[in-house]
């Protein structure tokens, strides 16, 4: 069965060009970059090159890049470093729609370490209110952490404005840009972001590598202590293949981003409009204006997300859901709940996320398959418009 | 990804008896859109025998499969027989459900009870709680009587168990303390007069699957760490009734004292923590 992979916000396919670039570093150039001999040294040179590629892509200095093992490590490092730098400051500002890497860390700090956290709310489209944000600053605010783009809805947040506001308040600004890197223009030389997290496997590098940007001059406290790697800022022998891959992936993204975004967005829009038109009781969750070009989060009323996903899986379509049942929790996605998406729709939400490898045929197949699939599940459902009669609005249907 | 049994998948992809009985003799509606799953059960009864049953379900794969299994289980039974059906019967019919999904089988049991009450004219199709009960979980609208019954019928031990079976405590978590109190209360009620007597052995009243899980967890927590400290390990090969077959690996496989380890550690621990009659043998 042909797999139609529309779950690229979960992880992406390693680009064959990236794979080619890293192959020699498994079995031939396997030296330790810290070694004195030339055999290891040449690997060190390649890591420098990768660091330059990442820095160039983000518009920063190579010395401002720390390689990590994943986005979650970058997020943890950033927040814990800021807190350690200002031990007297006990307040954090973040949003209610962050990735668990930030959200769970913040609740942990609240419950176990005596911190106070302000979780900024969103409107029904998942947008933040800058006035609420400005009011949230306190004399003891240690750090602001706001995601650049949301993994579930694809919403893009006004990071430039928010970073300026944090700067005016003299507070460190961190952004979890895991979903944004490679899809949104980022130039760190032009905006006052202090720290930024990214993850390799969301932009066609393998799993197990990430990076943290730390602005020059910012007080930094390492999370992993040990060897001298990463200039003492992150101990542990370098994940050479991962780092080389991340460098190559950034180079590819830099060259292709504009063209890619146009093609991917066209496919996404066709998928979204097609589903909204063909299937009744559907709506898009997210910001109509500022969304990642590859993401659409669509709710199907009166049916449950896990059931939809398993039906899709039967015909080879991969996506994900914000329903409660898929995660093992009993409540639907915190992102959809923060947006006040009615339960009718929250339980039946499906996220489709595309990539450079998504084809026209993939989208055609989904558009052919989804209507009957949803119809079959609705036949089983005890609910319908007549029975539940919620206000159904097709948001930004064209 | 959930690990569903083939039976769950079969009943999800090919649900039996889906639909509505227009002139049903009894209807039971449980759950809601807000809760994420809901089931309406229709039954047709003739001369005290359930001649037909149909369902409509909103929910995940295991909710749909549980509803389908429920109808298969009750068609042809007398109402009295059907009344004795528990959520365990539904789960067993499907070859088991993931623990986190047990509440789907409980939903089936509740819909059946409601449909029978409705048939007898004792209630409407929708379950309404008596005023004596106390609302414990506000997020999912679960009353203390439902929780106590689930604890008793399924021998639930922890708050997490209660959440898996009834959903109570799975939302904001405010009622977790109250659930813990109900667990203590239930244990107090089921045992002999003071001083409280614990169950004769921990696995008493467990289903086969629960007992197998318990054996696995005792292996992981109490046995493996000790063997691993000496560079060895153990593999669980089979569990048949009270006979557990294992295989030593690593250093243990060639260790001259492996027989003593088998009796003094493996068997002793399993007897202490699972069942006093367990016999452990080595794979041939």
Number of strands of chain B: 8
Q: pLDDT below 50 for ≥5 consecutive residues: which ranges of chain B? A: 190-198
CATH architecture of the largest domain in chain A: 3-Layer(aba) Sandwich
What is the strand content of chain B?
15-25%
- Number of strand segments of chain A: 13
Order of helices and strands of chain A: EHHHEHEHEHEHEEEHEEHEEHHHEHH
| CATH architecture assignment name of the largest domain in chain B | Alpha-Beta Complex
Q: What oligomerization state is this entry in?
A: heterodimer
| Number of continuous helical runs of chain B | 10
Largest interface: A-B, 26 and 30 residues
Strand order of the largest sheet of chain B: 1-2-3
Kindly state the percentage of residues in helix of chain A: 40-55%
Q: What's the CATH C level of the largest domain in chain B?
A: Alpha Beta
Protein name (chain A): Cysteine desulfurase
Subunit structure (chain A): Homodimer.
Keywords (chain A): Iron, Iron-sulfur, Metal-binding, Pyridoxal phosphate, Transferase
InterPro entries (chain A): Aminotrans_V_dom, Aminotrans_V_PyrdxlP_BS, Cys_deSase_NifS_bac/arc, Cysteine_dSase, PyrdxlP-dep_Trfase, PyrdxlP-dep_Trfase_major, PyrdxlP-dep_Trfase_small
Task: Walk me through what this model shows.
Chain B: [2Fe-2S] cluster binds at residues 137, 139, 172, 175. Chain B: GO terms for molecular function: 2 iron, 2 sulfur cluster binding; iron ion binding. The complex is a heterodimer of chains A (398) and B (284). Chain A is built from 14 helices and 13 strands. With 398 residues, chain A is α/β, with parallel strands linked by helices. In chain A, helix 7 (159-168) links the parallel strand 5 and strand 6 (172-176). The model of chain A is unreliable at 389-398 (pLDDT under 50). Chain B folds into 3 domains: 6-120, Sufe protein. Chain: A (Alpha-Beta Complex); 135-187, Orthogonal Bundle (Arc Repressor Mutant, subunit A); 208-282, GMP Synthetase, Chain A, domain 3. Chain B has helices at residues 6-13, 61-74, 79-83, 87-93, 102-119, 144-154, 159-166, 176-190, 208-229, 258-273; strands at 26-32, 37-46, 49-58, 135-137, 142-143, 232-240, 243-250, 279-282. Chain B has a 3-stranded antiparallel beta sheet with strand order 1-2-3. A 3-stranded mixed beta sheet of chain B has the order 6-7-8, covered by helices on one side. A two-stranded antiparallel ribbon of chain B has the order 4-5.
């Amino acid at each position: 069965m042909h797999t139609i992979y529309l779950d690229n916000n979960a992880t992406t396919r390693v680009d064959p060009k990236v794979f080619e670039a890293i192959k020699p570093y498994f079995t031939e150039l396997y030296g330790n970059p810290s070694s004195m001999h030339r055999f290891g040294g040449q690997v060190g040179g390649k890591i420098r090159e990768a660091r330059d590629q990442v820095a160039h892509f983000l518009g920063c200095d190579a010395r401002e890049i720390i390689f990590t093992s994943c986005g979650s490590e970058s997020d943890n490092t950033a927040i814990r470093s800021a807190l350690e730098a200002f031990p007297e400051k006990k307040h954090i500002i973040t949003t209610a729609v962050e990735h668990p890497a930030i959200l769970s860390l913040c609740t942990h700090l609240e419950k176990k370490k005596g911190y106070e956290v302000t979780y900024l709310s969103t409107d029904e489209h998942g947008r933040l209110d800058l006035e609420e944000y400005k009011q949230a600053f306190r004399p003891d605010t240690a750090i602001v952490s706001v995601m650049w783009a949301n993994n579930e809805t694809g919403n893009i947040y006004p990071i430039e404005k928010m970073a300026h506001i944090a700067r005016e308040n003299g507070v460190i600004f961190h952004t979890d840009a895991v979903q944004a890197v490679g899809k949104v223009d980022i130039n760190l030389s032009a905006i006052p972001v202090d720290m930024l997290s990214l993850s390799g496997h969301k932009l066609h590098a393998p799993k197990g590598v990430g990076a943290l940007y730390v602005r020059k001059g910012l007080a930094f406290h390492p999370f992993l202590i040990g060897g001298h790697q990463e200039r003492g800022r992150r101990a542990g022998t370098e994940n050479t293949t991962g780092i080389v891959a991340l460098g190559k992936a950034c180079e590819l993204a830099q060259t292709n981003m504009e063209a890619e975004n146009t093609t991917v967005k066209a496919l996404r829009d066709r998928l979204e409009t097609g589903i909204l038109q063909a299937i009744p009781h559907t709506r898009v969750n997210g910001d109509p204006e500022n969304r990642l070009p590859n993401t659409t989060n669509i709710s199907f009323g009166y049916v449950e997300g896990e059931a939809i996903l398993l039906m899709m899986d039967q015909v080879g379509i991969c996506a994900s859901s914000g329903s409660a049942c898929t995660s093992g929790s009993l409540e639907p996605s915190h992102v959809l709940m923060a947006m006040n998406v009615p339960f009718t729709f929250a339980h039946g939400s499906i996220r489709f996320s595309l990539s450079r490898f998504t084809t026209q045929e993939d989208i055609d197949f989904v558009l052919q398959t989804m209507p009957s699939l949803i119809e079959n599940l609705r036949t089983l459902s005890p609910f319908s418009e007549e029975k539940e009669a919620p206000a159904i609005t097709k948001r930004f249907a064209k | 990804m959930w690990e569903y049994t083939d039976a769950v998948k079969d009943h999800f992809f090919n649900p039996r008896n889906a639909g509505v009985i227009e002139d049903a003799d009894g209807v039971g509606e449980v759950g809601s859109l807000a809760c994420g799953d809901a089931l309406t059960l229709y039954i047709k009864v003739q001369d005290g025998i359930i001649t037909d049953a149909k369902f409509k379900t909103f929910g995940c794969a295991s909710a749909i499969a549980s509803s389908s299994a429920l109808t298969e289980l009750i068609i042809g039974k007398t109402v009295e027989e059907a009344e004795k059906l528990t959520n365990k019967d539904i789960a067993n019919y499907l070859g088991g459900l993931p623990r986190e999904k047990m509440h789907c089988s409980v939903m089936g049991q509740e819909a059946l009870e409601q449909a029978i009450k409705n048939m007898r004219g004792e209630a409407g199709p929708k379950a309404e709680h008596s005023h004596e009960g106390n609302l414990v979980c506000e997020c999912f609208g679960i009353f203390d009587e439902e929780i106590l019954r689930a604890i008793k019928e399924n021998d639930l031990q922890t708050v997490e168990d209660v959440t898996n079976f009834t959903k109570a405590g799975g939302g904001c978590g405010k009622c977790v303390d109250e659930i813990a109190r109900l667990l203590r209360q239930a244990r107090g009620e089921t045992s002999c007069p003071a001083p409280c007597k614990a169950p004769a052995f921990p696995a008493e009243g467990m289903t086969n699957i629960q007992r197998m899980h318990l054996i696995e967890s005792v292996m992981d927590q109490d046995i493996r760490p000790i063997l691993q400290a000496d560079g060895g390990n153990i593999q669980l090969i089979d569990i048949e009734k009270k006979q557990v077959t294992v295989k030593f690996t690593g250093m243990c496989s060639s260790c001259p004292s492996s027989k003593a380890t088998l009796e003094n550690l493996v068997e002793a621990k399993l007897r202490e923590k699972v069942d006093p009659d367990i016999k452990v043998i080595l794979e041939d």
